[in-house]
Amino acid sequence: MAENKTRPEVGSPDDFLESIADDKRRVDAHALAKLMGEVTGEQPTMWGSSIVGYGTLHYRYESGREGDTPVVSFAPRTASLVLYGIAAHDVGGVLAAQLGPHTAGKGCLYIKDLSAVDNDVLARMIGVAYRAKAGLGS
Question: Is pLDDT of 48 > 70?
């Protein structure tokens, strides 16, 4: 069975975030890292070379495939900040409707400008996803 390509790494999340060339993306990434840390109470960990994750979740599918993944995470990509595992837990898109400019994919949330979204709503979205995935209830 194939191993997961994305695994926890030894690298420093702060060093990674400091290496972001675009000033705006770097500032937004640091702000998002702080917000995710405050909401989850977790220390950030690098997953692979470009994902900053909070907490660890072990999963096992009926097929027998299993592995570890961050409970919530983000990657500062060129076009936007990509938040993983957040959108899937916003039942009916209630919070997303209040968030501000963003797009969503399968379980991912894409934010081009962190200052354009409602950070209180974003914090609630992160918290809902974190608690649901970590088995902490609402």
Answer: yes
